[in-house]
Every structure is written in C-alpha cells, then in structure tokens.
Please model this.
Amino acid sequence: MNHARSDYDAIVIGAGVIGAAVGFELGRRGRRTLNVDKLPAAGYGSTGTSCAIIRFRYSTYDGVAMAWEGLHYWLHWADYLGDTDGTLDESGLIDFIQCGTLLIKKADGHHTKVVPLLERLGIPFEDLDADQVRARFPVFDLGVMGPPKRPDDDGFWAEPTEELLGGIWTPDAGYVSDPQLSTHNLQRAAEAVGGEFRFSTEVTAVEQAGGRVTGVTLGTGETLTAPVVVNVAGPHSFVVNRMAGLEGTMNIGTRALRHEVHHVASPPTFDYGTQGVHVQDGDVGVYFRPEAGNNILIGSEDPECDPREWIDDPDHYDRDITRAQWEAQVLRLARRMPDLGVPNERRGVVDLYDVSDDWIPIYDRTDLDGFYVAIGTSGNQYKNAGVAAHCMAELITAVEAGHDHDARPLKVPGRYTGLEIDLGSFSRNREINPDSSFSVNG
Ligand SMILES: Cc1cc2nc3c(=O)[nH]c(=O)nc-3n(C[C@H](O)[C@H](O)[C@H](O)COP(=O)(O)OP(=O)(O)OC[C@H]3O[C@@H](n4cnc5c(N)ncnc54)[C@H](O)[C@@H]3O)c2cc1C
Model:
C-alpha cells in the first residue's frame, strides 16, 4: 500500500472491540490508520453491552477453530497488546475470568454437533452425566423442561418427567470482566503503533472513483482519503454498506436484531457471582453467566417460540427491558435454578445484534475494491476480536498486493494455535451454511 497522497492508509468505520482490533492489527503491520466512531468513546456500541463470554461451541468446524484460537488472545492479553511494563492503558487491563462452560446435554441437543468438533480440534472437555453435573452444581434442577416455551404457555410449569443427559464441560472457557475496557485497551495498543481515533464523528458517505474506494466523508463535511476503508460498524453494517452502494451485491446480508440481557441476584443459597459457571442451556432456551457482585446475566438462545424483533433503523429502537421478555428469560432460569428469586425490578441491557443470514460472520473484501467488511457478528463474535482482526489484516494485505481472494480464499494460520482459519467460510458470497444453528450459537 503505497498511497503517499492519502490522509491515511486505512480508515476503519467503528471503534467497537473488532474495529479497534482491526486498527491495531493494521497499525502493527505499519499502516497509518484512523478509526472513526460516532459515539463518544471506544466500545460504546454493542460491544459495551456484550456479555463477553468466551466459549468455543459453535456448529461448524471453522467457527470452533476460530473461537479456540480467539481464546488465546485473551489468555495472552498484555503480551498481545505489547504491554510489557503495565503502562499501556491508564485505566488498567481487563481480567479474563476462566470460569468454564457447561453445555446442557439433552436428546438431539447442540452438543451432538459440538462434541465431534471439540474432539477433532483436540479442545479439552469432559462429558458429564446428570449425577456428575449434580455433584458439581447442586444449584441446578436437572429435569428436562424443554423444548423452550413462553411463560404464558400452559406447559411452562409442567413437572419434568425425565432427566437431562448431563453436560459437556469445557474448563478453558470464561468471560471478560469489562468489554468496554477491553476495547479501550485495544485503542491504546493501536495508538502505541501510530493509530488515530476520532470519536463523536459520524461517517456519512463512502467515497469512490473508478470502482475503488477513495475515502469517507464525515458529518462535519470533511472528506478524508484512504485507499482502504473497513466497515466494522456493528449493527449499522447494512447502513454503511448501503452508503458504499453495495446493497444487494453480497449473497449473505446483515440485519439488526434487538436483544435483551437481564441481570438478577444469585440465589441466597449459592454465590453464583464467584462460584458459578457459564451455562448454555438449550433445554430452557437461555444462556447465563456469573457477574461480579453476586449477580447472574441471562441472555436468550433465540428459541423458536420467542418473537424476533428485527430493527430497520439501528439509531431508533426501544432500549427498555420489556416485561414479556424479562419474564421469559428470568423464569426460564428459575426453572433450572429453583432457588432463584425473581425480582420485581427489571435490570439489564438492551442492544442490537448484527445478524447475518446464517448467523456466521462475514470477514471479507467486497465488490468495491479497497472496501472490506468485518460484519454480521450475530451476537457471538466479541470473543473473536483479536483473531478476526488478525485475519482481516492478513486479508487486506494479501488482496491489496493483488491476491484474488474470491477465486482462492485465503487461509490464515492462527498466531497462537497455528490452526488454519479458512476465510472462505466467512465469505460474503458463500451459500447459507446449513450446519449453522441459526441462533447466537453460530
Ligand atoms: C447484548 C449482547 C450480548 C452479547 N454477548 C456476547 C457474548 O457473550 N460473547 C460474544 O462473543 N459476543 C457477544 N455479543 C456480540 C458481540 O458483542 C459483538 O459481536 C461485538 O461486540 C461486535 O463488535 P464490533 O466492533 O463489530 O461492533 P460494535 O461494538 O457495535 O461497534 C460498531 C461501532 O461502529 C460505530 N458506527 C456505526 N455506524 C457508524 C458511522 N456511520 N460512523 C461512525 N461510526 C459508526 C458505532 O457507533 C459502534 O461504536 C453480544 C452482543 C450483544 C448486543
């Protein structure tokens, strides 16, 4: 990339966890980068409300491989950022809390897809029967409650007549203490290699000439030039693609989906905040994890009975927790955890997933030369920020040097595990992947 007259070598639209990581990865390869975000600070978009769960139980080989590689970025965070003496970020670095994940096992459950992939990739796991799960986690009722239902369904409170098969335990999984801080860490790392950030600044147009991107125009009216522009706009990804005139040019589209995460106190009998684990419970249709202060975060696994609220305008949607979804998620957890108190006061966050047609992300170039996308993260790519950004930087470097990625999809070796990430799986022009769970499980 030798474009001496451009303002930057690359402009990244968005400074969420993936956008900031793309800035860092390009910067460490010697590119002069600018991240532009319309919000006032890094990680204030959907990253800020993320549950930041780091797990590797996806439905496809490439999904699991990428997440396993992605884990190692969190394990080696300070080293990855180049924070050799603890002074990189005045706010400190995040903690990775390695609490482990329990994937609930029921007949024909998600584990039937996941276990062969864990085995193939050599990812440590334990296959626990119901008695072993009960011995480790006496706080759970292991009756089969599913398939998931709404609380107003007559069968919601039915007494279980059989028991779950058990659970798949992956001890290496966990969550990041503060997703916004992790993004700030990445910002500081990017700045340390020369990257710049502009906040409270909206990109309003993507400029192009002769089939090639030339830069962006900002809400201030200013135009900045760069030979490479990367769309990492999260739930606004389709809006930015539209600005670039790319609507309808990709086989896989993205849409914004409203998602609620609820916060409740641990049951009085068990300090879930410090002793709990992350659980993927397809039987009742929720995922949950411990949170500091003796709390539990509860999200939905998007079961079929839950209405999906697609959002046409990601700048305007209802950010209040609804009674209906609060009751659905909290009462589902109360079925699994009978001692859970169900508070009257509704606490939690509401934000948007940037969902692709098959709930698998798009990490790719586009039909507009120089314009790249890291989008469609489908509520499940926080964990992959580091590896996704590494792949994007390798892709951009190769394509800008003349590689025909559409004809010969790039395979990127993982920095930590050496696993090969086949970027063809994340192509904008792939067929919809029938192996996907078509949910947050990817
Ligand atoms: C409630 C919730 C829970 C989640 N839980 C998990 C989880 O446990 N584990 C997991 O792995 N993933 C999870 N995810 C998904 C994960 O958070 C996202 O995949 C990830 O944060 C996406 O990062 P990003 O940088 O692509 O997007 P974002 O963080 O959304 O950043 C995009 C940025 O682009 C900016 N932007 C948009 N348009 C413009 C414009 N025109 N000009 C300038 N700036 C613009 C926005 O202001 C925003 O800051 C969750 C998501 C949500 C919403």
Notes: Residues 13-19, 36-39, 44-47, 49-53, 202-203, 232-236, 240, 259, 261, 349, 351-353, 377, 379-383 surround flavin-adenine dinucleotide (CB under 6 Å). Residues 145 and 160 are 6 Å apart (CA to CA). The chain has ten helices and 23 strands.
